[in-house]
Amino acid sequence: MFNWFQRVLPRKGDFFGMFEAHATTLVAAAAAMNKLVDGAPQEEQIAEIEIREHEADDITRNVLTEVRRTFLTPFDRGAITSLIAAMDDSIDEMHSAAVAIDLYELRSFRPEMREMVAMIGDAARLTAEAIPLLRDITRNGVRIHQLTEKIVSVEGAADDVHAAGLKKAFEECSDKPMQFIVAREIYKHLERITDAFEDVANEIDGIVIDHA
Known about the structure:
Order of helices and strands: HHHHHHH
């Protein structure tokens, strides 16, 4: 009888803990990407990114399961699922970039590529700083907004680096079309990562606006 009573009591899942665990995978994957483009053994870093992506997938599934099972949620269920989906898109795009680098056997990276990867690391760290602050939105709303603004500004700066790098690759590879195609593909993947982090920032902002 007591076990039945426990089951019907309102539940409150640890969504904040799961968000924070996911943010940790973002930081770790971004760090592996930085090592990858800085010349560390590629197989090790690509494997690390894949491991972190699998961890993130597990966390995402747990969040989606808890949303269905939990009676009391810290904020709107749609906001919870949208935020974890945006976070998961970020690490999925990092994994896709790593797969492309492996596929094309890229061993050297243009300065603009390394710069974009460094920006991805910045976006991941800013996200990891912002996520725990959601535990007390009323108190932390201003700081959260400052962090999301920085993430959005990183994405804007990355767009500029992407455009400059693509133009430079086109000019330098006028007689090497395959090299340009590979460069364009890698730039596209890196841009998608920063776009995904901007989506994360927008989801966080939406939660703050609705609950601050």
